[in-house]
Amino acid sequence: MRHALLIALRDLRERARDRTAYVLALVLPLGLAGVFTLILGNIGGDGEVFRYAVADADRGVIATTFTDEVLRGAATGGAIELRTASSAAEARAMVDKGQATAAFLLPEGLTEDVIAGRAARIEVVGDVDAPTGTQVARSLAEAYTGRLAAVRVAVAATVHSGVTTPPADLAAEAAASLPSTVVAEDTTGRRQLEPKTQYAAGMAVFFLFFAVQSGVTGLLDERRIGTLARLLAAPVRRSSILAGKLLTSVVIGVLSMTVLIVASSLLMGAHWGHPAGVGLLVLAGVLAATGAMAVVAALAKTADQAGGWQAVVAIVLGALGGAFFPVAQAGRALEVLSLVAPHRWFLRGLADLAGGGVAAVLPSVAAMTAFAAVTCAVALVLFRKVVRP
Amino acid sequence: MSVLSCSGLSRRFGDVQAVDDVSFSIAEGETYGLLGPNGAGKTTTISMITGVLEPDAGEVVVAGQPMSTSAIAAKRLVGYVPQELALYPDLTGRENLRFFASLYGAARARVDHVLDVVGLADRAGDLAREYSGGMKRRLNVAIGLLHEPRLLVLDEPTAGVDPQSRNQIMDNVRALAAEGMAILYTTHYMEEAERLCDRVGVIDSGRLIAEGTRRELVEQLGERDRISLLLDGDLAHAATMLGGIRDVKSVAVHGHGLELVVDDARECLPVVLSAVTSNGVVVRSVEVNEPNLETVFLHLTGKALRE
Ligand SMILES: Nc1ncnc2c1ncn2[C@@H]1O[C@H](COP(=O)(O)OP(=O)(O)OP(=O)(O)O)[C@@H](O)[C@H]1O
Ligand SMILES: [Mg+2]
After folding, report:
1. What lines the ligand 1 site, CB under 6 Å?
2. Where do the domains of chain B lie, and which CATH numbers do they carry?
3. How confident is the model at residue B110, as a pLDDT?
4. Interface predicted TM-score (ipTM) of this complex, two decimals
5. Alpha helix (H) ranges present in chain B?
């Protein structure tokens, strides 16, 4: 292990002098995430139609107004497609199966609560892979609950004074005095990420696959420049040489992710979530990326060839996993394929973290760790031929 | 006890039998030259001796320790200077040395010591990529010396370097041998082998086809040292005189000249000259002809050492 550490430290010292490494690991992902946020962050897509589901457990006037006025209004305008679900469970299932971008869950007693002056909640369940559509759904619900707050204040005022005031006046009064109520949170524990976090995370995990390349590909470089023969002649176990290379990748990956997370939080205002959950996701993601790139490197004959193949694999996995654009709308087949992409699990884990506690990331962490275990094992077997000429 | 002994080493790559049943050994303080044309199997042999490559057959023992690709103990005893420059270009000379010193568990002080030995102390802080070809070669050698190995293996350590660096490297090798290090040296430069090596092995197409000191090899071929003299005076008398000297094996008369076949031309030249002049014969010219390894090599392999 001491030898693996020495080998990794030497690699890192050399990498630290390589300017293109910084560009790939830090400058590009931050820059692209910023650009995506600017261009895409605030619009609902050009001509894109969002499919929403609504489940009305209330059936009171407040719920019906939301469905009939707000949602059907938007649907007749052509901006959304609306489907009615018979229950909250069915609505959630529609989101999970990709039949709906987001679902509005109007809870039982919504109208009663509003009339009684209690906080009103509309739950929005969004598809992780469709951040824009979910964001739009949120905005719609927010706009309506904002209005509900006004109604609530009006009701309260009426109750207290015993005087009937025209609703329009009360609404105006309310708007002046109260911020809109918070939209109810997704109770399934999976909330969508806000766009800037989504883009920052997508870019970070996408470029992570490039950042970890240099470590595992270093073995091929060393073979080319002849230093591998020196390592093989040194009193060092071959497994330590391989471990050193993997360690280099892991350290570079964790460092670049950490810098990206801090920088995107400070510069773009991204919200990554609880540090413990983010840490687990980052570690699992780095291991998965290292494993994937190690397999490719082990199959290649030269470092240049490995670099080319790795770029292709990183882009395909990234696109599949929704690092650039959500894959949910692209159809079932692709969605199933996306299960093999660590990117998908990384982003899913962050969304789960936003919606639930730290434990919510565990399924995603488990998926990425499994991916890492399989790929690293395959890579170690394949690499044996590189160190055994 | 020999520091290195290899027996029956063989290794095949696909259809090419790169090394075929090679056996030899090197004693403490001895410098052994492995000579052979391109593709003869020198590097392959060395790779098996250094534990980089697993042999198909045969075994290598270094100072009593069996060598293999996983033999940590044996590898500690061997210093390796690969044929290719094996340096990290983006590290300084000193950083290159420190890294390998740490792998071998060599003391930090050894780094400065070997920098001095190869004459790179004043450039130790420069990146290896900025070194001249000769400096890179010297750093390449220095790495092999870090842990004071019992056996130093140098695979063409002077390939393509300037005379100054070459002399420096050869002086280093000589000094190390004098300290008792066993040295295995391959080269394409015949004069290096003749100057440095106590014994040489000639390898061709993977087989060790001859082995011994220069003199032994030369004699195996029936080649002898010759001294040609151009004289004024009584040739016949001179010839009889010279024929009586112990080391002179034969004397032939050609016109004004004599041709002597001797055991060791350098050793008996003074005796020959004083014998001739003391008889009133005037020596007009002397020519000494020592068959060298180049001749041996051409004879054995039908190839020149350098192509
Ligand atoms: N890794 C390898 N794969 C396939 N063939 C190899 C390999 N290494 C060496 N060979 C072959 O084995 C033979 C011996 O090669 P080797 O490098 O040992 O020769 P050499 O004596 O060191 O030559 P040179 O003086 O040119 O360095 C050559 O025919 C070479 O092509
Ligand atoms: Mg060679």
Report:
1. A 389; B 13, 16, 18, 36, 38-44, 83
2. 2-77+149-218 (3.40.50.300), 225-290 (3.30.70.100)
3. 93
4. 0.83
5. 42-49, 72-75, 93-104, 109-117, 133-145, 163-178, 190-196, 214-220, 235-243, 265-277, 293-301
